[in-house]
Design goal:
By secondary structure, the protein is of the alpha/beta class. The protein has two domains: 140 residues, D-Maltodextrin-Binding Protein, domain 2 (3-Layer(aba) Sandwich), CATH 3.40.190; 109 residues, D-Maltodextrin-Binding Protein, domain 2 (3-Layer(aba) Sandwich). It contains eleven helices and ten strands. Strands 1, 2, 3, 4, 7, 8, 9 and 10 form an eight-stranded mixed sheet that branches. It has a two-stranded parallel ribbon with strand order 5-6. Helix 6 links the parallel strand 5 and strand 6. Helix 5 crosses helix 6.
Length: 262
């Protein structure tokens, strides 16, 4: 019997992606499977969505996987992207310290934010124009309040590190579900609010347009796009987290319409 042949080596794909994809653990799983199946190597640049799109504009990546639709659509309108596809989603939740000093538990996000502000309870914000940061700022805007120091802290770091700060400071924080549950055992934080309807966290893959970004590798970008939309990758996404955490950290969404998820 002949041994199965490994895919032909094809080169490197430069993937810009967000800290939530890495910090949840999903990125490592996707990269390993992508390299095994395709013969391409993947090198990831991991930052908040705003920073990832800035790197993409400079041509330092070929493709991005990000989660802040308004910034993504501006990126597309400016001509930097030639293809944008929905890959997966989860949702944002409010987490906080055991004991819940602001009595935020069980409220809506906006009511919980008002309670936190009224109690001047410590709140950690990423403050980095990431998808999580934009969702949090939008929630504060809906309350009509302007959070401020000393109780409102901007970490300026990624999701996992910000959760550690919140845990150490006995603070509240808006988090994506994937990173929180992926790190929950190391944190002194509990889920306070699971918004209903869900505060969706949508992830899109965008292949850069070489007409606007000549340094981008179109073949490499397409290889990553086709992979994350493939049935194999979508199964990995749908199952990720169930074995370790008892719950899937993301929901596969290739081929779905955003309006049907809300």
């Amino acid at each position: 019997m002949l041994a199965a042949c490994a895919p032909q080596a094809r080169g490197e794909v430069r993937v810009g992606t967000t800290t939530t994809v890495q910090d949840s653990g999903l990125l490592d799983v996707l990269v390993a499977d992508f390299e095994k199946r395709t013969g391409w190597r993947a090198r990831a640049s991991v930052q908040g969505t705003g920073a990832v799109l800035a790197v993409a504009r400079r041509g330092d990546v070929d493709v991005v996987l990000v989660h802040e639709p308004a910034q993504e659509l501006a990126f597309m309108r400016e001509g930097f992207g030639r293809r944008r596809e929905l890959v997966m989603f989860n949702d944002f939740i409010l987490v906080g310290p055991p004991g819940d000093p602001a009595a935020a538990k069980g409220k809506s996000v906006e009511e919980a934010f008002r309670a936190i502000a009224g109690a001047r309870a410590t709140f950690v914000s990423r403050g980095d124009r990431s998808g999580t940061d934009v969702a949090e700022k939008a929630a504060w805007q809906r309350t009509g309040l302007a959070p401020s120091s000393p109780w409102y802290l901007e970490s300026g770091v990624g999701q996992a590190q910000s959760l550690i700060v919140a845990s150490e400071r006995k603070a509240y924080m808006l988090s994506d579900r994937g990173t929180f549950f992926g790190r929950r055992n190391a944190l002194a934080l509990e889920v306070m609010v699971e918004p209903s309807p869900r505060l969706l966290n949508l992830y899109h893959v965008i292949a850069l347009d070489t007409a606007k970004v000549p340094a981008a590798n179109a073949k490499a970008a397409d290889a990553w796009v086709e992979y994350v939309l493939s049935p194999d990758a979508q199964r990995l996404i749908a199952e990720f987290g169930k074995d370790r955490f008892g719950v899937a950290l993301f929901e596969a969404a290739a081929g779905k319409r955003e309006q049907d998820l809300r």
